Amino acid sequence: MKTRDAxxxxxxxxxxSLLRNALTTLGIAVGVASLVAMLSLGIGLQxxxxxxxxxxxxxxTVVVTAQRDFRPFRHGEPPATxxxxxxxxxxxxxxxxxxxxxxxxxxxxxxxxxxFAQQSEFTTVAGVPPxxxxxxxxxxxxxxxxxxxxxxxxxxxxxxxxxxxPSNPAALIGxxxxxxxxxxxxxxxxxxxxxxxxxxxxLDSALGFSFGDEIGEDSAPGINIVRRERRxxxxxxAAREPFGGFRGGPRSGLLVPLSVAESLNAIDTTDLRSLSSxxxxxxxSYSSLRVRxxxxxxxxxxxxxxxxxxxGTFSLMDATRNLQRVFRILDLFLLIFGSLALAxxxxxxxxxxxxxxxxxxxxxxxxxxxxxxDRDVKRLFFAEAAAMGVAGGLLGVVLGWxxxxxxxxxxxxxxxxxxxxxxxxxxxxxxxxxxAVVFAILVxxxxxxxxxxxxxxxxxxxxxxxx
Length: 467
Description:
about 50% helix; alpha+beta; elongated; 2 domains
């Protein structure tokens, strides 16, 4: 029997018991739909997670820190055999020259006092590079991002904006505030402060130093702490800090362009080591550098190069390896539970084909009497099972897609009711569609194995006697 003849005969037989076969095919479709819906939900959640982190620039980012040597602070410890790498401008240039590095930005943040009208608050100021503009932290930004990398502008965090203007934080946009901070100057500098250098006990306490103090070794010129003021125009209010808070140091309340933050030469009180060095103005040192790779797949190799340069590294790829394992386990469990409905449908196929054998015993006997082999009979029943598998698989994919769209629609409505941005938590890739149809066909073929074997083993003489 030719394959085409087998499928033609199978199609005719399926049409003769249309209702029963249609219900069996619908059972397959429901099983495939549940499988597609569950797997697409797991894939969608993982895709949303990756998309959010990629947009925040976290998957392609490595945080570089200096490996501190604290042995000189302990008595009897020998000096380090190799010099400790300082995270300074020279290191910054060296890291920027590494392969697959597209940006190196320091984590510049310092304590300061912000004054608006009669309100004065202490906060931490952080520098933000222009590349942070697409960050999801600025999605619901009230106002706008910085007009240029060197603009004297500021973006306030929502909590800090409410502290400056409790009654109407949005009214701060477009207004000017005065930023008072501690600038470091060489010990022999005679430059005058732009503000009154009289003692300010509150600011001294916040900074941990007193204005006019000189820090440095007795044998070398130190640095003076000088009070400075800078006027900044408020351009926007952000709900949270960019980069997903993936930065060191205290949380900031005020953001300025990174080049502006660096030009202020403000003292970061966390970097006591550079302030007390023998040459504190030889070059600025940083608590950490944020290194962006050309692509996420290059992060692991980049971390290895940085460790060879004796720098400490951390990336979100390190932290998400276990999380990716969790997603794989979640997908496996969704696959298992989604397959249960398909297993029930497989039992329906077995029942349908066994009933077909009982109803068509005489027909099978005639086929074998006129020369049909056992293999031809098996092929016929396999063709019927495959036809139900193809129809059920295609219908199931459509039903699964509709279920996913309904899930997305309901999720969007709920998030909007909570004043949250809409999210796509469901995704059906092309390989899932193809895999679901192929899986449905394989399940139906396995389900048809017993009925096909039973039909092939019928004795044609006994089958012809059956009325």
